[in-house]
Amino acid sequence: MSTTLLSAKNITRRFGGLVAIDRVSVDLNQGSVHAVIGTNGAGKSTLVSVLSGEIPPNEGNITMLGKDITRWPQPDRARAGLGRSYQRTTIFPSLSVHENCRISAQSNHQKFWRWAFPASKCTYSNEAADRALELAGLAEFADRPAGLLSHGGKRQLEIAMCLATHPKVLLLDEPLAGMGAEETDRMLNLLDSLKKEHAILLVEHDMDAVFRISDEITVMVNGCVIAHGDPESIRNNPDVQTAYLGEEE
Ligand SMILES: Nc1ncnc2c1ncn2[C@@H]1O[C@H](COP(=O)(O)OP(=O)(O)OP(=O)(O)O)[C@@H](O)[C@H]1O
């Protein structure tokens, strides 16, 4: 049986009078890609931000490996093994691919008492960056300025920057946005190779990709979960079909 690494129960987040997410529950299990899909404004990114600790929930609780992390700030969650990537690309374009990963690793492994020691010589961070680039299939581009990578390469680098912090749980917000077929294929293969060791939450609009890669899917509409299950049951769910057909109309 797979291990539940992160569990969120009855999460509600309001912005003024707007209920962006309403009593949403999700479990993230090692070895599994759990996609969260839904129409525009359904609350998917808000859910990711609450899980990552960027914004607090108004109600509900989040546990990671049995610990209640609901009130933990983002850096503490990151150190406990929670990694997130963003909808927009967040790399340092003038630094090398390796330097981007090293800085990410360092942010999770700060040694304030070693202030006189050059950060670039930190063995831990350099090794974490090497490993992350290897895992993400970017080792051959290590010395290239990050800004010169293709769009797909930059999104891969974002995942590598996440991996450099040694996460157990990956929260990925639209990692396929703007990608062509070949880049999408490469990213899906990467996610597939990562899921054995990680629990992955995937927010994504590309439905072909979602149905190809996911082990379970949660569907949100207007802040609420309307369905949860394996890809086959979601594909055949009449409420899901109505929600998506309604959007097309
Ligand atoms: N910081 C904020 N302040 C006020 N309202 C917000 C804020 N962030 C999100 N919202 C609102 O909360 C609702 C959910 O937004 P969210 O971005 O989570 O949806 P989403 O499902 O990720 O949408 P999309 O697929 O378009 O990215 C929307 O109505 C949005 O306008």
UniProtKB/TrEMBL annotation:
Organism of origin: Pusillimonas minor
UniProt keywords, alphabetically: ATP-binding, Cell membrane, Membrane, Nucleotide-binding, Transport
GO terms of molecular function: ATP binding; ATP hydrolysis activity
InterPro entries, A to Z: AAA+_ATPase, ABC_AA/LPS_Transport, ABC_transporter-like_ATP-bd, BCA_ABC_TP_C, P-loop_NTPase
Pfam families, alphabetized: ABC_tran, BCA_ABC_TP_C
GO cellular-component term (any): plasma membrane
Domain ABC transporter positions: 6-247
CDD domains named in the record: ABC_Mj1267_LivG_branched
Xref: Gene3D superfamilies: P-loop containing nucleotide triphosphate hydrolases
Lineage: Bacteria, Pseudomonadati, Pseudomonadota, Betaproteobacteria, Burkholderiales
Protein name, per record: ABC transporter ATP-binding protein
